[in-house]
Amino acid sequence: MNHKLIKNTIYGVAIGDALGMPHQFLPPQEFDKQPVTEMTGYGAFSYPAGTWSDDTSLTLALLDSLSQGVNYTQIMQAFANWYQLGKYTPTGIAFDIGAGTAEAIKTFLAGTLALAAGSSKVTNNGNGALMRLAPVVLYLANRDDTLSLAEQFEILHNTTRLTHGHVRALVASGLLGMAMLTVQRHPEWPLRRALTTGFQIARDYYQNQPAFQSELIDFKPLFHLEQLINTNRNDIPSSGYVVDTLIAVSWCLLTEPNPNACLLKAVNLGEDTDTIAAITGGVLGLNPATHFSHSWLSQLKDRAQIDYYIHQATESANFN
Ligand SMILES: [Mg+2]
């Protein structure tokens, strides 16, 4: 896979994360009064502009681990190194840690197998696995012709299950994963066509499997994108619930063609600003025609670290 595509995708995640990070948890009305137009610092956490959070850290942890191949114990160990040692952070300390992710890492460290560490309770349906899906998609994109559809879903599900074991979180990753793979495979297609096709591939796959099929109803807006495009901003949910996040990301991608404006649109939805913008940035970055703002890119903290893991992936047979 070309270096530029890995770079663009990971940069998209980091820029979205850093743009949204200071503004998270604020209600949408706050953004009506004062919309975010630039990268700023402080706010939700005491960090300067350009600081990236868990979304990018866990993305780098997966990119690092997948550079050595798919080993779920190793991926979980990388997550634990972030959580305990502050590896993959620009601050030396892990912060903005999701509850489901923290619980799963502690369960793993106490001796539970990696694939059983994520709680399968219905309350554990935050967007913690969606935020780190980009490296998994880059890995799968490189194996397009050697992995069956079932094997691709298995990897999307298993990398999710590490921290989020409920079937709804698995289906969310399957839907976003197929949408992202379609964007990568067909950069010439309008995003609307790529998302429609990707969501349809996942829906067709899940429809034949009773364990997953019953979850599709929650994601209904993704199968009616025409309706979603015409939905008012005030009716778009933007919480950290996996269903809300996926709908919010899709709405931003479908309603704003300029990638930098699209990231701001994601932030200005409010609530889980950094994760919604990070996922949006990852999808946009999969198209080589996407150019993120140089000013935002240059403001990212410790870009050398991000570049190190991108370079390592580029050199690895698993991304080539
Ligand atoms: Mg975050």
UniProtKB/TrEMBL annotation:
Coiled coil: none
Record's keyword terms, sorted: Hydrolase, Magnesium, Metal-binding
UniProt binding sites for Mg(2+): S53, D54, D55, D272, D274, T275
Nucleotide-binding is among the record's keywords: no
Pfam family, one: ADP_ribosyl_GH
Domain of life: Bacteria
Magnesium as UniProt keyword: yes
Cofactor binding mode and count: Binds 2 magnesium ions per subunit.
One term of GO molecular function: metal ion binding
Cofactor: Mg(2+)
Protein family: Belongs to the ADP-ribosylglycohydrolase family.
PANTHER family linked to this entry: ADP-RIBOSYLGLYCOHYDROLASE (PTHR16222), ADP-RIBOSYLHYDROLASE ARH3 (PTHR16222:SF24)
The name this protein goes by in its record: ADP-ribosylglycohydrolase family protein
Organism: Secundilactobacillus oryzae JCM 18671
